[in-house]
Amino acid sequence: MFQQQLVFFEVRPDRHLVDLPGYGYAKVPQELQAHWQAFIQDYFQRRESLKGLVVVMDIRHPLKDYDRQMLGYAVQRGLPAHALLTKADKLGRGQQSQTLQAVKKELFSAFGDSVGVQVFSSESKQGVDQARQVVTDWLELA
C-alpha cells in the first residue's frame, strides 16, 4: 500500500523544514488522494508555526493544478510562497528566461506579488544561493 507522510528536517532545535514529497504526483487511488488533499489543507489552516512555502516544480511542466492549489493555501494564510522551477539545466538560457517570465506573469495574475519564483538546478547549482536566502530569511537564521 502507498503511504504518504510529512518529512521533517531539523535546521536547528527550534526551526524545521517540512517536506511533502510527491504530494500531487503520485499515482494513488482517488480516495487516498482526496484524504491527503484534505490533510494538507487542514495542515495549512491549523499549523501556526508555518513561515512560508516553497513549491518545487519541473521547469518543463510548471504550474500543475496541485502547484496552484498549494500556492493558494499559502496566500490564503498570508504566508510568503516561493516557486522553484527545477531542472533548469535541461533547458537553454533563452527557454529558462521565457518560462520564468510566463510563470511570473501567471503567478502575479493569480496571487499578486506574494509569490516569488526563480529558476533552479541542483545539477549546476543555479539558484541555490537565492533559494537558501529565501528560506534563511523566513526562518530568521541569519
User: What is the CATH-assigned architecture?
Assistant: 3-Layer(aba) Sandwich
Percent in strands: 15-25%
Give a short account of the largest sheet: 3 strands, parallel
Q: Count the helices. How many?
A: 4
Give the overall form. globular
For the CA atoms, what is the radius of gyration?
A: 15 Å
Can you count the beta strands? 5
User: What is the number of independent domains?
Assistant: 1
Protein model, in words:
With 142 residues, the protein is α/β, with parallel strands linked by helices. The protein has a single domain (7-138), classed as Rossmann fold (3-Layer(aba) Sandwich). The protein has helices at 30-46, 65-77, 93-111, 128-138, and strands spanning 7-12, 15-19, 53-58, 81-86, 115-119. The strands form two sheets. Strands 3-4-5 form a three-stranded parallel β-sheet, sandwiched between helices. The radius of gyration is 15 Å and the shape is globular. It starts with 6 loop residues before the first strand and ends with a helix.
Topology summary:
Blueprint: E1 7-12, E2 15-19, H1 30-46, E3 53-58, H2 65-77, E4 81-86, H3 93-111, E5 115-119, H4 128-138
Parallel strand pairs: 3-4, 4-5
Antiparallel strand pairs: 1-2
Features:
three-stranded parallel β-sheet, 4 helices, 20% strand, alpha/beta, two-stranded antiparallel ribbon, 142 residues, Rossmann fold
Give a short synopsis of this structure.
The protein is of the alpha/beta class and 142 residues long.
